[in-house]
Amino acid sequence: MSRKTFAVAVAPLLLLLFLLPSPGLAQESANCLYCHNAMKGTIKVQGGAMVNLNVDAEKFKASVHAMLPCTECHLKFSDDTHASAGSAVPSDILSLSSKISIKYSSDPVAGAACTKCHEEEYQKVLSSVHGKNVIEKKQTDGALCVDCHGSPHYITKAKGGKSPVSRKYQAETCGKCHGNQELVEKYKLEENVMDSFSESFHGRKLLLGHTRAPVCASCHNAHDIRSKSDPLSPVFGKNKLETCGKCHKGANEKFIPAITHKRPGPIPHYGEKLLILLTMGVFAFIVIHVLLEAFADIRDAVFRKKEGK
Amino acid sequence: MNDTAMATAGIPKEIERFNIIFRIQHVLMFSTFLILSFTGWGLKYAHDPEGLSSIWIRIWGGPDTAGLIHRIAGVTMLIDFIWHVIYLIYLFATKQMTIDAKTTVIPLPKDVFDVIKNFMYFFGLSKEKAQFGKYSYAQKFDYWAVFWGMFIIGFSGYALAFPMQVSYIIPSFATGWIWELLGIMHSDEALLAIVFILFWHFYNEHLKPEVFPMSWIWITGKISTEQLKHHHPLEYELLFPEEAKQEKKG
Prior knowledge:
heterodimer; A: mainly alpha; two-stranded antiparallel sheet; 15 helices; 2 strands; B: mainly alpha; Fumarate Reductase Cytochrome B subunit; 2% strand
């Protein structure tokens, strides 16, 4: 069989390879996971960061990143061994990694690598109040990608499912910091935001599974989140008109105070106290009256002969 | 209202207490009240996505549908209330209804004394129960509770259901606190209304031994003369003065 005949006969068969079910993992990831799936515990790496060695292969396969090879993000590592670290890292990622190294002490390059695919979102985050907190104020507790989305190994689609940024879990995720008293005090964050949300009509509807009830990011934005004192924030002053207007067409200045994270002022507060007092008063009267009347009826039936009238 | 009854010889077996319009208004009122209570309860106690409230709301078709049902029932109830008020105005304007101390539903000092008298009877301090006209204090309380509810819950509910439209008429000085207050008013007074109906109305018109399982007046609109004499003696005296006098002598 000549080489040419061989090629003509076999080459079309190679096309069949594309039809084979995808193995789900890049070959190189399989190599890494072979060990890391079984490894447990944490080790201290250079620089003193603690690194969790375990990568759950099953959960990784279910993630949206399953088809990526490990070195797509862990750029420092070659697909060979850890020892030969030092693969060339593109300069833009390297410079980004140095900005956020305070946050990802174990592998800042991997933390910066998200930008390879998600550049637009990453740029928004960097100029957001969360990003600036890490880059400019050098705070380790500032939020970057993984703080909201969870480990990139197990990331699932934001819509539905168990994603921490899904409608169902988003408030809980934001609450990790915004409901944390220490952080609220440290950064002078608006207090009581989690409780006021879950007590609001928006929050209650969301809890019941309303399909259009807003979550945190609906009003505050997701990646380009800003302080409410930042004129670019969707909840800064008159920007609220547009933000509320996304769902409530024609939102006006008298309408927008309807939803707020502020604690109720004195009028609603004492108004409620008054109504509770009224409720209790009426409740006491009717219950006492009903019980006494019932007892009197029983007494009459048992001890007193019914008179004609 | 009962001129024809009085004109006939002797006493009729029963008289009309509520005409068909009042009865329809009552049916509309209580059916929307029940729907509003059922659908609103889930929202008031929404704490947990997997909790009882969420399951309860799913029975009503989920929060979107339950919200729609709640709004439709609420608007229906408000229309029912407005219809009632307009009908009353019409009755007064055409002199079909007049105010008389013995038949009016308006609270009078006598009602306070009736309460005291009945409490004394409950405690065994008096041998006589209070004697009522057309409406006992319990019934007046029932009636005016609806008015209170309509003004507090009804109109706050309207504002919460159509906040955009209502926002235009809210004075600027009130925008900072009115929404919070409307929510509190709606929710707290709804609870009061439910408790009130459960204890007061249900006991007086359903559970009380003499009416159990319910007073049928809401369907028939009629009360027997015997019951009238027993429960509303003052109205009986007003309607049938001759008979009442004779019975007293006899």
